[in-house]
Amino acid sequence: MSKCYTQITLADRRRLQQLMTAKVSINEIARLLGRHRSTIYREIRRNTFHDRELPDYDGYYSTLANDLARERRCRLRKLRRHPDLREEIISQLKARWSPEQIAGRLIADGVCLVRVCKETIYRFIYNKEDYGLALYEYLPEARRKRRPLRSRKPRDGAFPSTHRISKRPDIVGQRLQFGHWEGDLLIFERPFGQANITSLVERKSRYLVLIKNPSRHSGPIMDKIIRSFSPLPAFARQSFTFDRGTEFAGFRALEDGIGVTGVLPPHCLLSPDL
Question: Is-annotated flag, keyword Lipid biosynthesis (predicted)?
Fold first, then answer.
């Protein structure tokens, strides 16, 4: 049996029909065709012809089985079968919603009875048929090609478990004390270059600080935060909470730069009421 799976061909189906007609066992058929027996069982279950009006003709026929399999692979995708849902997703993408936000909001709002996960939306964005819409330009990274999942670098080293949002004291989460900040990065469209803005909101007073950055490199971003907050008294800069973006990977510099002992990155989502 081959270690690399390939689709069953018409020649395989013709051989399978001959062996089934000869009453050969499934295990033996799998051995002769070089396939796993589960593959043979699945092929027979999916592509056997059934007709209530002509029950005498029920059975496995190679050419008909090949047509059924090909039709199944060519079946329209979910967003093709539901054009209204497709247009809604395109509209939300152009409004700069991420696929994760769109998928979650569609379920929460009950916009459509059809469930759509983030992976469906990503595949829609990058598939060949709809690539001409250039919907990737509305994603945060605006990548022309989708980066394989396994190639993404783990962030556990930059953001240890000791600095997760679950470790944040309740007094910070309840907005009872002044001096605790939450930060995020505002990224502009590609034509505007690499410039971006760090937004820092004080949780209790909602006071906002905006810092302009020339790039997304963590070092310069942390340096600007240090220069902006150094003049403040200690009680006004007790802790900072960031998301898991790599631009905040150098958060430890705040501990040395401005003596913050309660630096609290990262957590995956910023507070919805920020």
Answer: no
User: Which residues does 144 contact at the CB level (< 8 Å), separation at least 6?
Assistant: 136
* In-domain check, residue 274: no
Into how many domains does the chain fold?
3
Supply the pLDDT for residue 207.
93
Name every residue whose Cβ is closer than 8 Å to that of residue 22 and which is 6 or more positions away in sequence. Answer: none
Within-domain flag for 273:
no
Q: Please state, in angstroms and rounded to a whole number, the distance separating the CA atoms of residues 75 and 70.
A: 9
For residue 170, what is the domain's CATH number? 3.30.420.10
Q: Which residues contact 9 (CB under 8 A, 6 or more apart)?
A: none
Verdict on whether the full-model pTM lies above 0.90: no
Q: Please compute the mean of the pLDDT values over residues 58-68 and round it to a whole number.
A: 89
| pLDDT tens-digit map of 187-222 | 877 677 778 899 999 999 999 999 998 888 888 898
